[in-house]
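=== RUN LOG ===
request id: a7f3
mode: sequence -> structure
chains: 1
length: 174
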Amino acid sequence: FFQAEDGIRDPLWSRGLGDVYKRQCTAPVEEPKGSGYWAGGDGNEKFVNASDELTEIYSQWIQAHNDKDIEKVLSFETDSITILLADGNVIKGSEEHAESLSNYFESNPNWNLYWALPYVGVNNGEEWIIAGQNVTSTNSDGEETVTQIMIDAQFIDGRLNYIIAYDKELQTQD
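=== RESULT ===
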């Protein structure tokens, strides 16, 4: 037996690195099949995990909220941002979002992101993230409330473009 450069013992004389490369896997790479489904469109969309770069962008967007930095928040969004709020209100465009953030920041919200999963459509290539966070706010009477918010957000060219927010106020434990 002869030992090739890759450490594999072989009954044939090794001719160098070429033998090592010949032993590498040549199996075809399968395209991701994905899982789940989207009922919209033709109903055939499946999803796979997307890059954690989306998670990082989203985390920075959350931090900009905690810093109450309206310009920074808007810098992570497209100019045509659309936000569907849990109460049924819809925010359209950067200008409207800046105005609503100004009012929102009066409640001194503090966002605590506790999970996030970026995903991408296998067929259409749309990038999204779904994330959960607890947001602690102070109302006009000085009472703190904690709201659990789930956000499903679409990215276009690395910027948030379409956001759907769902929320549930958490009950205090006495």
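=== NOTES ===
DSSP finds four helices and ten strands in the chain.
The chain has a mean pLDDT of 85.
=== END ===
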